[in-house]
Every structure is written in structure tokens, then in C-alpha cells.
Design goal:
Layout: E1 2-5, E2 14-17, E3 27-36, H1 39-44, E4 60-68, E5 80-83, E6 86-87, H2 93-96, E7 107-108, E8 122-126, E9 130-132, H3 139-142, H4 145-158, E10 166-169, H5 173-184, E11 190-194, H6 197-206, E12 210-213, H7 220-228, E13 234-237, H8 244-250, E14 256-259, H9 271-276, E15 280-282, H10 289-300, E16 310-314, H11 316-326, E17 334-337
Parallel strand pairs: 10-11, 10-13, 11-12, 13-14, 14-15, 16-17
Antiparallel strand pairs: 1-2, 3-4, 3-8, 3-17, 4-5, 5-9, 6-7
Length: about 350
């Protein structure tokens, strides 16, 4: 089968032919229907030593089951799925308690050669972490459940009071996912700060009217206060680049900083600067399986939609070129690979 592999930093991803995977106990093999290119994929190829040569990225996917491993009750060939892209050890105290996301030996799909990702024609997942996809969702929509679940988990972790104002830095797919959940759960003023004109226009097209041009307003908190008459209760970082020091400088006292972008580059800040303002800093990571189920239910009922989020689709032959394009400044939101 065809797969798209990382070779080394600075080189484009390369197509390769590899053997089709087989189903292990508790595992499923699926034909990839769609897989999103994530910001963490783009960051990972820049970090020395993070990826092994020959690694296959891809963790935002939808697929159709083609092989069912032993011990996968309730699954059959032809089922449509998405899944929490990981393989917990199953034996540690956290796993025995059902807290798979806290497993100290968890394998992150796409970032570890022991569990290749879905930039490929076929891939695998754990049946216990997989979610059956309803006919209400297309393959493309189902592939966005993962990034929407990231936004949901971030919102839950922040514990924002209903009616509070929030500022979101970055109008990529995660920033817009957080904004959608903020609206869903009853936030008050929802501001999105973004430098790229096309992304600001996309946020406005979705229905957010408090859009801040970050190229004109270096301090979006000040602009938030000018336009709303109050301070944000929380600032969500959704850019994935070093920014903590700037956030501390702009944050009002007692604000919560929610670091959603999962940046992989070193960041730094002075603790006393945050302490003097009595800031709180939250580092939500990924999601739990329940977030996938809830996200799908809300998408099925159209209480949450992903309209405007998918900006292009490419096949595996075109994916390396698109991946390189997304690693530079661009107008895209979510690009899907459809093998």
C-alpha cells in the first residue's frame, strides 16, 4: 500500500510502498477515507529527534473497517469509524482505572513508529478507543471530530463561567473549534485575534463578529476591552508557537491563560511577571474518548457544524506538496488527505 513518510528535517515527505498492516488483538485495520493535516504534524517535522525516519504521520482520520482483530466485540467489516489516535499500555494503574489518556507508556499514533498514522491507504486503531460514525456525517466531516474534540477538551479544562468574555489567539481550525464551543456553552463576548486576512474573513463567515486584526493590534486584550467594555476572563492560545511571555504581558490580572496550541518549540517566561498578576495557566492536552462521542452527537444534530473549516482536499500523490505549503504562511484552515 502507499504511505507518506517523514525522512528527515528539511526534506519533503515521500511516498513509499509498505506492507498493509494486520489487526492485532483488540485492534482494527481500516481503509483511510480522509485524514487531516494537523498543526502538530507540521511542528513535529521541525523538531530534531522527535520523529524517526520512515514515520507516517496522520491522527485526524475517518475510515472503513477492513479487518477486525481478536477481542473486538461489536465491530465488523464495513463499519465506519474515527478513533482516539493512541495505544495505551492497558496494564498501568491509570489504564486499569480507564484513564487511558494518562497512561505513562501511551503510544501517540503518527508520532511513534510502533503505531503509524493515517497518511496512508490503510491504518490501524484500537477498538476500545474507536467511535462508530453515523450516516449523518460525511467522511470529511468525521475526520474533523478529532480537532473539534481538542477544542471541546480545552473549553472544559478552562472551566469558564457562562457569560464570561474570552479572547482566542489564532483563527486556525483549533482556534475556531474553541470559538464554536465557547458559543455552544454560553460564553459572552467571543473575540478571535488573527493576522491573516483570509482567516479573519473565515471567522466572520462562521458568524463571529468580534474579530481583531492582529496585524494592526499588537495588544488584542486592549482592543477587546475597547470594544466590549470589559476584560476577558480567559485567553486561549491556539497558534502553537512560543508566545507565553507576550500573553503574560498583555493579560489583565486574574486572567486564565489556556495553552491549547501544543507548541513543540522551547518557550520561556518570567514567573514573577505572571505571579504579580495572579494569573492562572492551564495546559489542556488532546481529549478523552467521551469527547469524541459528545462531539459526534452534537455534529449529528447540527448543533455544532464544521462548515467553512475544510478548505481543500488532496490525494496522497499531492499531499507532500500541500504539506510543504502548509508549513509556510498560508490561508488554509483544515486540509484533508483523501487516499
Amino acid at each position: 500500500m502507499k504511505t507518506l513518510q517523514f525522512l528527515e528535517i528539511g526534506k519533503p515527505l515521500q511516498l513509499a510502498e509498505v506492507a498493509m498492516p494486520s489487526a492485532s488483538p483488540g485492534g482494527l485495520v481500516f481503509k483511510v477515507k480522509a485524514c487531516g493535516i494537523c498543526g502538530s504534524d507540521l511542528h513535529a517535522v521541525e523538531v530534531p529527534g522527535l520523529l524517526h525516519p520512515g514515520s507516517t504521520l496522520g491522527h485526524e482520520y475517518s475510515g472503513e473497517v477492513v479487518e477486525v482483530g481478536p477481542g473486538c466485540e461489536g465491530w465488523q467489516i464495513g463499519d465506519r469509524l474515527t478513533a482516539v489516535p493512541a495505544r495505551p499500555c492497558g496494564a498501568c494503574p491509570e489504564c486499569r482505572a480507564g484513564l487511558y489518556g494518562q497512561c505513562s507508556q501511551i503510544i501517540a499514533q503518527g508520532f511513534d513508529p510502533r503505531m503509524p498514522g493515517a497518511f496512508a491507504e490503510y491504518s490501524t486503531c484500537m477498538a476500545g478507543l474507536a467511535v462508530k460514525i453515523s450516516d449523518a456525517l460525511s467522511d470529511e466531516e468525521a475526520a474533523t471530530i478529532e480537532p473539534m474534540a481538542v477544542g471541546l477538551n480545552a473549553w472544559k479544562a478552562a472551566k469558564i463561567d457562562p457569560g464570561a468574555g474570552v479572547l482566542i489567539l489564532g483563527a486556525g481550525v483549533i482556534g475556531l473549534a474553541v470559538a464554536k464551543w465557547a458559543h455552544f456553552f454560553g460564553a459572552g463576548d467571543i473575540a478571535v485575534s488573527e493576522m491573516v486576512p483570509a482567516r479573519r474573513a473565515r471567522a466572520e463567515a462562521i458568524g463571529f463578529d468580534l474579530i481583531i486584526d492582529a496585524s494592526q493590534h499588537a495588544d488584542p486584550v486592549a482592543e477587546f476591552e475597547r470594544r466590549t467594555g470589559r476584560k476577558p476572563a480567559a485567553i486561549f492560545e491556539c497558534v502553537g508557537r512560543p508566545i507565553i511571555d507576550k500573553m503574560i504581558a498583555m493579560a489583565p490580572s486574574h486572567t486564565q491563560l489556556v495553552m491549547v496550541g501544543t507548541g513543540m518549540q522551547p518557550d520561556s517566561f518570567t514567573v514573577i511577571s505572571a505571579a504579580m498578576k495572579r494569573l492562572r495557566m492551564t495546559f489542556p492536552f488532546a481529549y478523552v474518548a467521551a469527547d469524541f462521542h459528545f462531539t459526534q452527537r452534537m455534529m449529528n444534530s447540527r448543533r455544532i457544524t464544521v462548515e467553512h473549516l475544510i478548505t481543500d482536499t488532496v490525494n496522497l500523490d499531492e499531499a507532500s506538496e500541500m504539506f510543504a505549503l502548509l508549513g509556510k504562511p498560508n490561508d488554509h484552515c483544515k486540509v484533508l488527505i483523501k487516499p
